[in-house]
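REVIEWER CHECKLIST
Item 1: Sequence provided? yes
Item 2: Single chain? yes
Item 3: Sequence as submitted:
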Amino acid sequence: MKQDNETMQEEFYFDYTRLLEENRMLHRSDYYLGASNSFVRLFTLTARRYWLAQATSEHITADWKVHFSIRPRDIPLAFNLLSELYFDMKLPVGLKARYPDHWKDYENVWPDHMRGREITVYILLYENTLLKPKQTMLYSCQDSYKPIEMIDWTLSSSNDIYAMHDLTEKDEIPLDRYLDYVDRAEQLLERYDIESNGCAHGDYPIGKYTSLRNEKFVAITDDGDSGKIRLIYPPNECGYNGSKDRRDLTRRIVDLQTYRNRTRHNKITKLFVFIVVIFLLIVFLINLF
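Item 4: Structure as written out by the authors:
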């Protein structure tokens, strides 16, 4: 019996449907896998610290994500493929996939305005919350398409929030590692005939299935009192960087085809340099003897 329990604890399977049905939290090599709060997730403790830091920062720090657009009936297979790939590549944060509509006792239905964001991959960006002021874009509650002005926002916490949660700049990884993941992921999805659900409205498209968006909160005037301002999740109409955050990853994460061309060019260049070095070495040896 003891052996059976140990074997059960060691299980770690990339199976969307089984994770939903068994409602367990699996753990292996610093990664956690399970279903809760309307999402099936693969994540690390670094991810949990990151999410807590973002919440404590009132969601007014950069929150860039890669969204995978997946036809609803293909979500189970897509999650299985993408979560295993993420685990194998040892990326540091995590990903999540939406629940099926009306799953068990949940009255959950994936909202229309979130179409194209069926699976989310997190991009960890460190931010020093002591650097002031924190800013975001202000919109009118009457028209989310038209930004009004950048405003300062004072956080309720005066501490270095990310440091409080044991996060530093060293927790960031090169953005090309995310692009490498996206490249491999898209090839996997195509190989298994997964269908896209269309690019999410307000996202920045980078591939057949993938798009980028900064979900840092924006400010909006109160419907009943234009003098009151509150923070909200950016409506689609605000675009892919509605907060106008200075860290605009669309300037650094290129579309997937450009990335593939650049990667191919780099490989050819390295091969050429290698051949030249070998040739020169041979010439040197011939002249030496």
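Item 5: Key structural point noted by reviewer: The helical segments are 2-10, 16-22, 45-56, 75-89, 161-164, 175-191, 256-288.
Item 6: Recommendation: ____
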